[in-house]
Amino acid sequence: MSKNVHDAAYNLENALRESDDFKELQSLYDQVNADESTKNMFDNFRNLQVELQQKQMQGQQITEEEAQQAQQTFELVQQNEVISKLMNAEQRVSQLIQDINKIVTKPLEELYGNPEDPQQ
Amino acid sequence: MSKNVHDAAYNLENALRESDDFKELQSLYDQVNADESTKNMFDNFRNLQVELQQKQMQGQQITEEEAQQAQQTFELVQQNEVISKLMNAEQRVSQLIQDINKIVTKPLEELYGNPEDPQQ
Ligand SMILES: [Ca+2]
Ligand SMILES: [Ca+2]
């Protein structure tokens, strides 16, 4: 990696780390982890999400029962204010990362006419 | 997006665009596209690749015949010097983008203990 690219990537990492969106995410994540019952609720929901996504990625069908269970768990954790705020903060940071990726991979998009990685 | 993050992302985009790896990729891509028979050979190979990857992503089995056809097409296009150089340049830029992503998403990795997007 050239020095210029390397330095620019580290500058971006630092700007992201110092951004309000990331700091709020960090603070809410710490709040969730500081309370055991909140942490358990959040971990269970996250594990369920990961499980269903892995099934989908492997081309397996999600049953109606599983979809219902995920929806119920989602509604339950949403009622916890700190978790709800954390999930919103995660969405904002996720969007921020997507926007960053769109900017950074623009040279490739211009070259190939689409934003995907050229090897994929 | 905060001004700092925005500016840092644009700086990185520019550094990537000005890097030797990217400039070489661009030059080789232009060379491949400038010659019709080379372009056709490359397009056919790329389309075959995309087709097989879509099948895999949809959880479909790649047949032995398809795998053999892909391997033969790969060996054929590799014998074209410009295409072979282009594919090597693509791999270097792809690796560069992966290295950049690893740096930029380090704050998230530290927060969650893994490098994945928190929403995924
Ligand atoms: Ca409690
Ligand atoms: Ca020719």
From TrEMBL, chains A, B:
Q: Which Gene3D superfamilies match?
A: YheA/YmcA-like
Record flagged with keyword Coiled coil: yes
Short name of any one Pfam family annotated for the protein: Com_YlbF
Q: Which InterPro entries match?
A: Com_YlbF, YheA/YmcA-like_dom_sf
Keyword Coiled coil part of the UniProt annotation: yes
From the UniProt record, list the coiled-coil ranges. 60-106
- Name the UniProt key words of this record, in alphabetical order: Coiled coil
Q: What family does this belong to?
A: Belongs to the UPF0342 family.
Instruction: Cite the HAMAP family for this sequence.
Output: UPF0342
Q: What is this protein called?
A: UPF0342 protein L2716_00340
Q: Which organism is it from?
A: Pseudalkalibacillus berkeleyi
